[in-house]
Amino acid sequence: MEVIKVRDYNEMSEKAAEYIIEKVKANSKIRLGLATGGTPLGLYKNMVTDFQHNNTSYRRVTSFNLDEYVGLSEEHPNSYRYYMNKSLFNHINTLKSNIHLPNGNAVSLQEECIRYDQLIQDSGGIDLQILGIGQNGHIGFNEPGTPFGSKVHVVRLTESTRQANKHFFNHMNEVPTHAITMGIQSIMKSKEILLLASGGQKSVAIHKLLQGEVSQQFPASILQLHPNVTVIADEEALSLALSYI
Ligand SMILES: N[C@@H]1[C@@H](O)[C@H](O)[C@@H](COP(=O)(O)O)O[C@@H]1O
């Protein structure tokens, strides 16, 4: 795992955007895996600014998002589809037909998992997967205990994850209880992974990611076994793992 240490959230966002833009320029048909949450918001903002100034084209780029809440429509302001449209897709020249997220409102969630998994495979797989990390080590919505062999699946969110995401909602009882997420195996199949982390509340997770044992109880630890992972983390997120770099 390569670790790039940055000063703060802004520098993390700038570096991550530079990293991705370079990859998009090198391969106009790149298949990106995208993440949501607070962490990548600055990254997307920088990608939008770059698009406005430099016209980096996303016309041929395909994207697959990691996850989506169950029970929220695409128009719901807290759905990840809405989040992606608002923070990135509405401001760059991606083709709608090239944008993919799981449908958390599907009649059969099991069939939706199979469809989404197949779609990723049929496309040829993900070239570059962007990841954040949950305080309990979750990636996507793969909570502790998720089998490392998991494909796209429905998860029940832990209370701690619901708590961590509640600031996006008006009330705790509006925070969905379930989500569809790419599994650990789906994530590990990506050719390359870029994980972002900022702030002291991620320091334990980053320490375990870099120096802990590989265990299903800490899902992100599996990334130690992936051949091409880059972590861009700021000083606070790296504060417990400083000996690593
Ligand atoms: N499903 C998302 C993850 O993809 C994200 O990485 C994580 C961290 O979120 P944040 O970046 O807001 O700390 O939480 C959410 O639950």
Automatic annotation (TrEMBL):
Organism name: Chengkuizengella axinellae
Entry keywords, A to Z: Carbohydrate metabolism, Hydrolase
Active site: 67, 136, 138, 143
Function of the molecule: Catalyzes the reversible isomerization-deamination of glucosamine 6-phosphate (GlcN6P) to form fructose 6-phosphate (Fru6P) and ammonium ion.
Catalytic activity: alpha-D-glucosamine 6-phosphate + H2O = beta-D-fructose 6-phosphate + NH4(+)
Gene3D superfamilies in alphabetical order: 3.40.50.1360
Family the entry assigns: Belongs to the glucosamine/galactosamine-6-phosphate isomerase family. NagB subfamily.
UniProt-listed Pfam families: Glucosamine_iso
Recorded superkingdom: Bacteria
HAMAP family the UniProt entry points to: GlcN6P_deamin
GO MF annotation terms: glucosamine-6-phosphate deaminase activity
Record domain Glucosamine/galactosamine-6-phosphate isomerase: where: 10-225
Top EC category: hydrolase
PANTHER family xrefs: GLUCOSAMINE-6-PHOSPHATE ISOMERASE
Thylakoid recorded as keyword: no
Enzyme Commission identifier(s): 3.5.99.6
InterPro entries associated with the record: Glc/Gal-6P_isomerase, Glucosamine6P_isomerase, Glucosamine6P_isomerase_CS, NagB/RpiA_transferase-like
PROSITE patterns: GLC_GALNAC_ISOMERASE
The protein's name in its UniProt record: Glucosamine-6-phosphate deaminase
Keyword Membrane: no
Pathway stated in the Swiss-Prot or TrEMBL entry: Amino-sugar metabolism; N-acetylneuraminate degradation; D-fructose 6-phosphate from N-acetylneuraminate: step 5/5
